[in-house]
């Protein structure tokens, strides 16, 4: 399995910076890690003209191009949580995600952070992230769809998405094609079903507490029973 945790991303720019954006990729995935990333700048207007936007609106090739620009020009950080980390988390997935946002902020120590809120209550999400960060003077802007609204969060979404895509590629090298890792992806479900039928257990890259895994196990068990009748 890949070695996951906090990924150090080199940056040539070592000047003091004060504003960061934070976003995550893979929160709802059934396979592979969740990656939370941040990008730190002096002024968000530095990102103007580069075509930054929510990573989901960009082609894989363009995301890679922008990723290389971002990590060379600005300080970035990515925190990676494995399926085992997610399965053993205390509390809800939203609270766990807030703690990951806080980990990124602790590494970047901005004066102000823009967050893509995953809680239905965006203000509450921001309050939880701030409390986890331990930075009492931190200013938080926590909004839904922040990756569409703020270039700095769009940049963070690109770093998170590219980092996660590379880790998913590592999983495919180990297990064979696993698809995108999301429950909506037929290739991911096909991989899970084949693996469970063959081994009797989910793969180590699966989030075993996810309902999708339970459903796959149940289907495979029914299919196995039907073989006897």
TrEMBL record:
Which InterPro entries does the record cross-reference, listed alphabetically? RNase_H2_suA, RNase_HII/HIII, RNase_HII/HIII_dom, RNase_HII_arc, RNase_HII_hlx-loop-hlx_cap_dom, RNaseH-like_sf, RNaseH_sf
- UniProt entry keywords in alphabetical sequence: Cytoplasm, Endonuclease, Hydrolase, Manganese, Metal-binding, Nuclease
Asked if the record carries the keyword Manganese, the reply is: yes
Q: Which reaction does it catalyse?
A: Endonucleolytic cleavage to 5'-phosphomonoester
Q: Name one GO biological process term.
A: mismatch repair
Cofactor (UniProt)? Mg(2+); Mn(2+)
What's the Enzyme Commission number for this chain?
3.1.26.4
Specify whether Ligase is a keyword of the entry. Answer: no
The record's GO molecular-function terms, alphabetically, read: manganese ion binding; RNA binding; RNA-DNA hybrid ribonuclease activity
- Enumerate the Gene3D superfamilies for this protein: Ribonuclease H-like superfamily/Ribonuclease H, Ribonuclease hii. Domain 2
Subcellular location(s) per record: Cytoplasm
Pull one GO CC term from this UniProt entry: cytoplasm
Cofactor binding note of this UniProt entry: Manganese or magnesium. Binds 1 divalent metal ion per monomer in the absence of substrate. May bind a second metal ion after substrate binding.
Q: What is its main location?
A: cytoplasm
Q: Which residues bind a divalent metal cation?
A: 23-24, 116
Ranges of residues in domain RNase H type-2: 17-222
What Pfam family does this protein match (any one)?
A: RNase_HII
Question: Which domain of life does the protein's organism represent?
Answer: Archaea
The entry's family comment says: Belongs to the RNase HII family.
Its function, per the record, reads: Endonuclease that specifically degrades the RNA of RNA-DNA hybrids.
Name by which UniProt lists this protein: Ribonuclease HII
What species was this sequence derived from? Methanorbis rubei
């Amino acid at each position: 399995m890949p070695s996951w945790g906090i990924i150090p991303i080199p940056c040539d720019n070592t000047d003091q910076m004060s504003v960061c954006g934070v976003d995550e990729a893979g929160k709802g995935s059934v396979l592979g890690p969740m990656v939370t990333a941040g990008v730190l700048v002096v002024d968000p207007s530095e990102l103007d003209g580069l075509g930054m936007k929510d990573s989901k609106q960009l082609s894989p090739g363009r995301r890679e191009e922008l990723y290389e620009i971002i990590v060379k020009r600005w300080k970035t950080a990515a925190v990676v949580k494995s399926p085992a980390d997610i399965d053993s988390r205390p509390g809800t997935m939203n609270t766990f995600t807030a703690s990951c946002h806080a980990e990124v902020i602790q590494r970047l120590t901005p004066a102000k952070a823009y967050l893509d809120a995953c809680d239905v209550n965006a203000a509450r999400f921001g309050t939880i992230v701030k409390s986890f960060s331990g930075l009492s003077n931190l200013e938080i802007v926590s909004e839904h769809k922040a990756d569409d609204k703020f270039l700095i969060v769009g940049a963070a979404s690109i770093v998170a998405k590219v980092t996660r895509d590379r880790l998913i590629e590592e999983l495919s090298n180990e297990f064979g094609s696993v698809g995108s890792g999301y429950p909506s992806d037929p290739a991911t479900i096909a991989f899970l079903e084949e693996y469970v039928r063959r081994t009797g257990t989910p793969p180590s890259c699966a989030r075993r507490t996810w309902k999708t895994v339970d459903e796959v196990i149940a289907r495979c068990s029914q299919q196995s029973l039907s073989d006897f009748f």
